[in-house]
Amino acid sequence: MYPAAYGLILAFRESFHRGGSSVEILTEFRAFAETLRQTRPTAVNLMWAIDRVLQVVDTFTGDINQLDEISVKEAIAIDTEDVALNASMAKHGATFISRIKKHIVS
Predict the structure, then answer these.
(1) What is the distance between the alpha carbons of residues 18 and 81, in angstroms, rounded to a whole number?
(2) Would you say the pTM of this structure is higher than 0.85?
């Protein structure tokens, strides 16, 4: 699960409900994304998730009222892909371990 993507959704919702122009809302949203980015500047997956949501936001041309739904879809897509990748790694890891387990000294 990528909490960063969901955290960005919550930040967008907070900015949106606080009100203001689209520019103000998105400026505040991007500032939160940068703050989140600075919490763990070497976390590659965190940066990837933030960048992916920001790409959706930055390329969105519709009404800001629809941006929440679009961002949520992207966060869910990120989450779904992560689960599939982790399941694949676990499967390959289990296969690998089963082949080498006789050589493992505990």
Answers:
(1) 32
(2) no
What are the structure tokens assigned to 18, written together? 């606080």
Sign of the Cα torsion 22, 28, 13, 78 reads positive
Residue 28 has, within 13 A of its CA and on its CB side, a CA count of 17
Residue 68 near residue 12, CB atoms below 8 Å: yes
The residue count of the chain comes to: 106
| Cα–Cα dist 22/87, whole Å | 39
Helix, strand or coil for residue 50? helix
* Rounded Cα gap, residues 53 and 72, in angstroms: 9
Q: What would the pLDDT profile of 31-78 be if each residue is shown by its tens digit?
A: 999 999 999 988 998 999 999 999 999 999 999 999 999 999 999 999
Q: What is the DSSP secondary structure assignment for residue 40, as one 8-state letter?
A: S
